[in-house]
Write a structure and sequence with these properties.
Elements lengths: L1 E9 L6 H16 L3 E9 L4 H12 L8 E6 L10 E7 L10 H9 L5 H15 L8 H16 L11 H4 L5 H15 L4 E4 L2 H4 L11 E3 L16 E5 L8 H10 L6 E4 L5 H7 L6 E5 L3 H9 L1 E5 L9 H8 L3 E5 L15 E4 L3 H13 L1 H14 L5 H12 L10 E2 L2 E2 L5 E5 L10 H13 L4 E8 L6 E6 L2 E7 L2 H15 L4 H8 L4 H11 L4 E5 L4 H5 L5 E5 L4 H8 L4 H20 L2 E4 L2 H11 L6 E3 L14 H10 L7 E5 L4 H16 L4 E5 L2 H7 L8 E5 L3 H10 L2 E4 L9 H9 L3 E3 L11 E2 L22 E2 L4 E2 L5 H10 L3 H14 L2 H15 L1
Parallel strand pairs: 1-2, 1-3, 3-4, 4-5, 5-6, 7-8, 7-10, 8-9, 10-11, 11-12, 15-16, 15-19, 16-18, 19-20, 20-21, 21-22, 23-24, 23-26, 24-25, 26-27, 27-30
Antiparallel strand pairs: 13-14, 17-18, 28-29
Helix pairs in contact: 4-5, 4-7, 9-13, 16-31, 17-18, 21-22, 28-30
Length: about 850
């Protein structure tokens, strides 16, 4: 093929990471493949509103039809029109996307009185975003309107008072140009054949890609060669000297650190003089200025460690080059793509974004050079498969006009290399996640999909259409509807006899009637490295299949849970006995059992003889990106806007699950005593009360099942979140949502089980696993928590009054910090990944 790499050339011209990316890819294609590749660069200026519009129009007007395939990587190059167009994304115009500050521009822009032509353009754009599939808003139409607007402005016909604030309308960055560029980008990308990104960080940024697009992460290589490791003489950093690269923080931390190792800083930029003044003529700090490629390789070769701490970097080429040179990398937790390569304390240090934390990492690296050198050895191993050959092999299928587009396999730092695969089977749909089990599976395996290919085999209702699609990058849900035979047997032979919905238990009895489900599981397991039975109900299906490892993922001790839920009688006893044997076999014959809380593992040991050496804790967690923290002042502001300023709102959420039903009944009893409070109960637990026509007082409202946006609203207005649980096993995900959102929490000890929130304070508390059973849930009986309020079931309504009236601000912040440190799904998934990797 004749391949064109189409790219902008900045005016004034500078050499940055983008230029090295283009050169490296072009050189590899021309030297090592049968294809021919040309780099076409068009000069652009983006220093003001109209120059940016012109730059987009240049590429829109560019004829590149003489190429067989074209690759673009940056705005505005993807404005070109070509039937075989692939975007290999570096980034969008970040100042109008992920680093845009709406608070700075939005209110001012909306206060302006717009000229009629500006209003027309805004309406034209709004029509597209309101319905992009039916809108007639086109790229050509918007360019025409913009050029008419510019002509009027240049000819002085824009009109009187509007001109007084024209600078605010045409500000860059600003709200008007942001709306225009988002329209251009989205409209142009509708005609793109396929998408890749240089990192998971870029792939995961909101609004960068059209909704529903498959984004293939392909790590590009460096265009440098000859990497080597010669000595460990100094700390080294290289980058443009500006604010985003945070070289200032490196110098501040270095000046405070107790180290004698020199610091060498390569690069130039607008902050150079300021940084030299900051260094106070310290003889240990050397500014190298601009250095060439050969010098750069030599400086890497003799560094003890490379410090690279940009803010939300797209990729992190400096880190990759350092690791190729067998050097440990010191970076920060908010450095974006860099973290995809650095593993804390293994290949470098990932510090909190503070001078204090960075200083500590420098001291540790400097005082234990042997340890730092060992991290460098592991670092080189971690990036050994990042090269242009693997990158192009992963990219090539998307460029070939005759070949069908197929998802590239990428493995973390090993782009182009086939990844390990997980197949998980469960008895309910997963996406979108609405209940506790769905949340656990979706968010845990969404994070694991950063390391493995994951396919979920799920079961849906008889009338569900079913599907097989990607619900997150590298995470596929294959949703299979129940067969009519299965649904009939489930209802007639189980549900009618035991008195509760029985899809999960029915899987143990009638999985032979789910031919499509079995076929999907068998096909997925064919190339899987791990089979995971999520709950014991899918264990029998997976146990028949061949795979290196079979894992039982418990969410609860299901036998004990169902024992609380089923109706009495002989039939229920038979079902419970069958479940007991199935869960026992899953515990004893699986290669690994995961539990949400070690209390569950202890119960399984007593019930089934589980070997605790073959069990690990994979706790429930929370997706901190979807649960915002709302401090008290913000809550009061939101409530006031909604006309709820005087209300005291008590919040609970739960699925249709017997312990949650019992808790909701307790809440109804408390509400009868607390007429001045409003109680909101979220989730499918409300369906039980509706179906059974159970009455409840006027100050209780059941909100039903909601999406993430609605849940966020409820979390933002609650004055107190409660969890009056008297039974159950596993851990309650709701507790983590409450704490992460910044709501004061009131719970029984049983409700806080497994989260290590409760501590013993006296000898008068019985010695048992907190939350595993018993009645020791009185805060005056030797128990306390630094994060939540504890209550006994006997006086829960009185405890509600006390918790609302005695708001503890410090406890709220401690709770959020505790969740961030211990229950972020990213951290949980990484730990689980490490266990799976060791198994292999």
């Amino acid at each position: 093929m004749k391949i064109g790499i189409i790219a902008p050339s900045p005016v004034p011209f500078t050499v940055g990471g983008a230029e090295k990316f283009y050169w490296g890819l072009q050189e590899y294609i021309n030297k090592n493949t049968a294809h021919q590749c040309e780099l076409v660069k068009v000069p652009v200026k983006e220093d003001n509103f109209w120059n940016l519009i012109d730059s987009y129009h240049k590429f829109y007007s560019l004829d590149v039809s003489y190429f067989d395939a074209v690759i673009t990587s940056k705005y505005p190059a993807w404005m070109i029109n070509h039937p075989n167009h692939h975007i290999y994304m570096l980034h969008c115009l970040r100042g109008l996307y992920d680093t845009y500050d709406p608070a700075r521009f939005f209110a001012v822009f909306n206060s302006l009185q717009m000229p009629s032509k500006v209003k027309g353009i805004l309406n034209y754009i709004e029509d597209y975003f309101g319905n992009p599939y039916k809108s007639r808003s086109s790229l050509n139409g918007l360019f025409r309107m913009l050029f008419e607007l510019r002509n009027e402005n240049e000819n002085g016909r824009c009109g009187g008072r509007h001109d007084m604030r024209a600078g605010e309308i045409y500000a860059f960055p600003g709200e008007f140009i942001r709306k225009i560029i988002h329209f251009f980008d989205k409209r142009a990308m509708e005609n793109v054949k396929s998408f890749s990104a240089i990192s998971k960080t870029v792939a995961g940024r909101k609004e960068y890609f059209p909704g529903g697009s498959k984004i293939n992460v392909i790590y590009p290589s460096s265009n440098l060669t000859g990497f080597k490791n010669e000595s460990y003489k100094y700390f080294f950093t290289v980058s443009r000297l500006d604010g985003a690269k945070r070289v200032r923080m490196i110098i501040e931390a270095y000046l405070e650190a107790g180290v004698n190792i020199p610091l060498k800083i390569a690069g130039t930029g607008p902050s150079e003089q300021e940084l030299k003044e900051l260094s106070k003529n310290d003889s240990r700090i050397e500014f190298l200025g601009f250095i060439g490629d050969k010098e750069l390789v030599d400086y890497y070769a003799n560094a003890l460690a490379v410090i690279f701490i940009p803010y939300e970097e797209d990729y992190g080429l400096v880190a990759v080059e350092a690791m190729m040179s067998e050097k440990a990398v010191i970076t920060l937790a908010d450095s974006g793509g860099v973290k995809e390569f650095v593993e804390n304390a293994e290949t470098g240090f990932i510090c909190e974004p503070s001078v204090k934390s960075l200083k500590a990492a420098m001291e540790k690296a400097g005082k234990d050079i042997e340890y730092t050198a060992r991290m460098g050895l592991r670092a080189k191993k971690a990036v050994e498969n990042i090269n242009w050959e693997n990158a192009f092999n992963a990219l090539n299928p998307f460029l070939n006009r005759s070949a069908p587009v197929k998802a590239a396999k990428t493995t973390g730092s090993k782009a182009g290399v086939s990844r390990k695969k997980i197949t998980l089977a469960t008895t309910y749909p997963v996406y979108p996640p609405r209940g506790g089990g769905q949340n656990r599976i979706f968010y845990l395996y969404k994070e694991l999909a950063n390391y493995f290919d994951v396919e979920l085999i799920t079961l849906a209702g008889e009338n569900d259409a079913g599907f097989r699609k990607e619900i997150a990058p590298n995470l596929i849900e294959n949703r299979i509807p129940k067969s009519k035979e299965f649904a009939d047997k489930e209802y007639r032979q189980l549900q009618k006899k035991i008195g509760i919905p029985a899809t999960d238990i029915a899987m143990l009895y009638f999985y032979g009637d789910l031919k499509d489900y079995e076929k999907a599981a068998e096909k997925s397991a064919g190339n899987a490295d791990f089979l995971i039975a999520s709950h014991p109900y899918s264990y029998y299906v997976l146990n028949k299949l061949k795979s290196p490892f079979l894992i039982y993922e418990s969410h609860n001790v299901e036998y004990e849970l169902k024992k609380q839920m089923v109706s009495g009688g002989c039939e229920s006893e038979k079902v419970l006995s069958y479940l007991f044997e199935a869960e026992k076999e899953a515990c004893l014959k699986s290669d690994l059992t995961t539990v949400c809380a070690m209390e569950d593992a202890c119960k399984m040991q007593k019930l089934y003889g589980l070997d605790l050496n073959r069990a690990i804790k994979v706790p429930n967690g929370v997706d901190l990106e979807t649960v915002k923290f709302f401090p008290l002042e913000k809550r009061e502001e939101i409530k006031s806007k909604l006309g709820l300023g005087r209300e005291k709102i008590i919040f609970f959420m739960g699925s249709w699950h017997q312990p949650n039903i019992d808790a909701a009944e307790k809440i109804i009893d408390a509400a009868k005593k607390l007429a001045g409070y409003k109680f909101i109960i979220l989730g499918s637990v409300g369906t039980y009360f509706k179906n059974n026509k159970i009455s409840y007082p006027h100050n209780v409202g059941f909100a039903g099942v909601v999406d993430d946006c609605e849940k966020e609203l409820y979390l933002s207005i609650a004055d107190l979140a409660i969890n009056p649980m008297a039974g159950g096993s596993g851990t309650n995900l709701k507790m983590l949502d409450y704490m992460a959102a910044g709501i004061p929490v009131l719970s029984t000890v049983v409700g806080a089980r497994g989260l290590e929130l409760v501590q013993k304070t006296g000898l008068n508390c019985p010695d048992f696993a907190l939350g595993a059973g018993g009645t020791c849930d009185n805060p005056d009986n030797g128990l306390k928590s630094y994060f939540i309020n504890l209550a006994s079931m006997e006086d829960f309504s009185g405890s509600i009054i006390n918790a609302v009236e005695n708001y503890e601000k410090d406890k709220i912040f401690r709770a959020r910090e505790y969740v961030e440190a211990n229950f972020d799904w990213k951290i949980i998934a990484e730990n689980f990944k490490n266990t799976l990797t060791k198994m292999v």
